[in-house]
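Quick check before the chapter quiz. The format below is the same one you will see on the exam, so make sure you can read both the input and the output lines.
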Amino acid sequence: MTGPITTTSHQLLPQQAGRCCGLVAGEVAFAGSGPGDPDLLTLKVARALQEADVILFDRLVSAEIMALAGPQAQLEDVGKEGFGPQVSQEEICARMVAHARTGKKVLRLKSGDPTVFGRLDEELTACEAAGIGYQIMPGITAASAAVASIGQSLTQRGRNASVRFLTGHDMKGFADHDWAALARPGEVAAIYMGKKSARFVQGRLIMHGADRATPVTLVENASRADQRVIETTLDRLPTDLAAANLTGPALTFLGLAPRASAQALSDLKMELA
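Here is the expected output.
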């Protein structure tokens, strides 16, 4: 006989209690707008856009998504551009807290998912230090949208049981990654904001024994109408990247080619075997 069925109650954290049904006056909601296609917004974030009194949004949030904001919303662009104009993190935190203290429903809108390379912890800490309540609304991260656009999977049985998410924007500490492990055949990595670090990545991987023919795919403006896919190899990565003249946000996949190309290569290898 089976024993009695037991249930475990899951208590909400203090910042979560009572915040499941919408925005709360005097508090901050951290939300992910996804990769840009408004059809990929979660229903929760779409409702938050309609409810918010103030929306502090990042540079990469698409215009189509911002058009969904309620007519009462005060829109504040607090975007950062790598090596370009920026609103400081301190200023963002200060504005966020100040608006919440006046009793407004504050939406801090980030591109992709706020928990992936979104500097979320610094802003949560600012809320906690000010005694401001908050909630987190996840979104679809760029890697998920970009890999779907090339008909691939981030993991595959028999190929890779893990995937690395790296950011090439902040080079401090970037050199400390386990490049030897990443250089092994079959490994997969998604590099966010990696256009400027392409030559560095190429050098590190080749230095650690990576095959120069390792497939590399870059997806610019994933999920948007102007999406572009650049198929290359580790050997040609910097050259092809420069020739493509990418101007939008791009995600780099190490170890993945678009599905049709990958299948053709597999068929060729079987013919030659």
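If your answer matched, good. Strands lie at 28-32, 54-57, 74-77, 106-110, 134-137, 164-167, 189-192, 215-220, 228-233, 250-254.
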